[in-house]
Amino acid sequence: VQLQASGGGLVQAGGSLKLSCTASRRTFETHAVAWFRRPPGKEREIVAAISRAGGTVYYSDSVKGRFTISRDNAKNTVYLQMNSLKPEDAAVYYCASERTILTDTLLWPRDYDYWGQGTQVTVSS
């Protein structure tokens, strides 16, 4: 599976962006998906995750209430709507997916075999 992440850019603090992660295969519906980010000089961290059917989602405390993860399996795409962006949200954002029979979210980078190329999000103060 190849993942294509898009939607990053430059936005002012308080603004919004919507990231998309599109998979190359129609079997994407069997994949759990997550968004991770790597801020400058910091370790990669999970941002949000969604189960393969979309029934279960997870958000890190730092984005809870501001970001929304969703998926459209008919379009092989997972979205990350980011609102009320803060300068500390600036990072390279990566989507990741893993085929699974589980109905829960997967929260660790080691859980994922497939990764997108990353999309840069810059937030000006």
Radius of gyration, CA atoms, in whole angstroms: 13 Å
Q: State the end-to-end distance.
A: 37 Å
* Class based on secondary structure composition and strand pairing: mainly beta
Measured as a percent range, the helix fraction is: under 10%
SSE arrangement, N to C: EEEEEEEEEEE
Uncertain segments: none
Descriptive account of the structure:
With 125 residues, the protein is mainly beta. The chain has no helices and 11 strands. The strands form 2 sheets. Strands 2, 4, 5, 6, 9, 10 and 11 form a 7-stranded mixed β-sheet that branches. A 4-stranded antiparallel β-sheet has the order 1-3-8-7, with no helix packed on it. A hairpin with a 6-residue loop joins strand 5 and strand 6.
SSE order and pairing:
Elements: E1 3-6, E2 9-12, E3 17-23, E4 31-38, E5 45-50, E6 57-59, E7 67-72, E8 77-82, E9 91-99, E10 114-115, E11 119-124
Parallel strand pairs: 2-11
Antiparallel strand pairs: 1-3, 3-8, 4-5, 4-9, 5-6, 7-8, 9-10, 9-11
List keywords for this structure.
125 residues, mainly beta, 4-stranded antiparallel beta sheet, 7-stranded mixed beta sheet, globular, 11 strands
Summarize the structure.
The chain has 125 residues and is mainly beta.
